[in-house]
TrEMBL record:
Similarity section: Belongs to the GSP H family.
Domain General secretion pathway GspH: 61-163
Keywords: Cell inner membrane, Cell membrane, Membrane, Methylation, Transmembrane, Transmembrane helix
Protein name per the record: Type II secretion system protein H
GO BP terms, alphabetized: protein secretion by the type II secretion system
Coiled coil (UniProt feature): none
Membrane association type: Single-pass membrane protein
Cellular compartments annotated: Cell inner membrane
Transmembrane segment boundaries: 28-49
One cellular component term from this protein's GO annotations in UniProt: plasma membrane
Organism whose genome encodes this protein: Pseudomonas pohangensis
Length: 177
């Protein structure tokens, strides 16, 4: 069977009828659907992302404070001298009426050993006082607790517990001042 193309004079389509032209791109309905999906994802995702950022700030503040206290204990034992850790707003001296969230310093007598910068945004760090002194054997006179909180309250907060033998540990906190 032979197939021969139609003659040039034969029209496949009646004259006067225009063929639908093909358009590249997206229709308005497709674009609106994508925008609605993006809106739903943003509505659900942004609050969860903000919660993750706040949790990261609490974790960072806890780790910074915990490391600072562990270093102070180590310095007291290494130097065989009392080491004072206190809240400081200028990261140079102990400052009265200052919270731990504003920063802290580690001192041997009047000599600055190390400074810790202020905690992140919306993070509060509170303890029984604003000064701890490690004895030369790494112990404290009294056990202490430091609460690290943010605007979300106790369910997301942390607590650093320091025993009389000077060990500092972090754990869940039950209250935020």
């Amino acid at each position: 069977m032979d197939f021969t193309p139609p003659a040039a004079s034969v029209h496949l389509y009646p004259t006067g009828i225009k063929l639908m032209q093909r358009h590249d791109g997206f229709s308005l309905i497709e674009l609106m659907t994508v925008l609605v999906i993006i809106g739903v994802i943003a509505t659900v995702g942004i609050p969860a992302f903000q919660d993750t950022i706040q949790s990261g700030r609490i974790t960072q503040a806890t780790n910074n404070m915990l490391g600072f206290l562990q270093l102070a204990r180590s310095e007291a034992v290494t130097r065989r001298a009392p080491i004072t850790v206190c809240a400081s707003s200028d990261q140079a001296n102990c400052t009265a009426n200052t919270t731990w969230a504003q920063g802290a310093v580690m001192l041997q007598g009047a000599t600055l050993i190390k400074a810790m910068s202020a905690a992140g945004t919306n993070v509060t760090i509170n303890g029984a006082g604003n000064t701890l002194t490690y004895r030369s054997d790494g112990t404290l006179a009294n056990a202490e607790a430091i609460s690290i909180c943010d605007t979300r309250g106790a369910e997301s907060s942390r607590q650093i517990s320091i025993t009389v033998i000077g060990q500092a540990r972090s754990g869940a906190n039950t209250t935020c001042p």
